[in-house]
Amino acid sequence: MITVFLVDDHEVVRRGVADLLDAQDDLEVVGGAGSVAEALARIPALRPRVAVLDVRLPDGTGIELCRELRSRMPELACLMLTSFTDEQAMFDAVLAGASGYVIKDVRGNDIVNAVREVGSGRSLLDGRAASALMNRFRTRTEAPDPLAELTAKEREVLGYIGEGLTNREIGQRMFLAEKTVKNYVSALLSKLGMQRRVQAAVLANKVKSEEAG
Predict the structure, then answer these.
(1) Which end of the chain is more exposed for a tag (fewer CB within 10 A), N or C?
(2) Are 91 and 101 within 8 A, CB to CB?
(3) Averaged pLDDT for residues 102-108
């Protein structure tokens, strides 16, 4: 069972998403809040697996909330759910540790699947969010080939990250210890100038798409 906490200043939105998620056998909404302060007071006590956060809140931002929650609860997966497609906000959310960023006008089933994905330890970004992030990464990357410094093993690990695999799953694919995979991940993130696994996932999928095209 994946437990979920909803943060949105619109009660109608919270209720709608809660009804959608509670209708699933494997998802359970354990609480909700309409502000950063209320969320910080309730989430640590309830210990949900996933926090669905609106980006814009009356007393702050979901991005700031995500950063604070992740510092207190590293195991918490944060899914940003918003009606805004601001590139900077998407970029900042990923840097804050968000596992996914979904635009509110997606279908209900997409939101359900997104919660399942991040609740299972995977990273997720919808198409528009991924495109926006890649635009940001492109401007920050001076080398024509951002993967030029990676070893063959690191490139292979990056590919699996792009598929959303965990370190354990990558280790099983490559016949490596989970700790060894973790070292590869740390090394490739450092070489790419990235801090978060989801950033690498976006880059891996973009490279894969360009190679296929």
Answers:
(1) C
(2) no
(3) 76
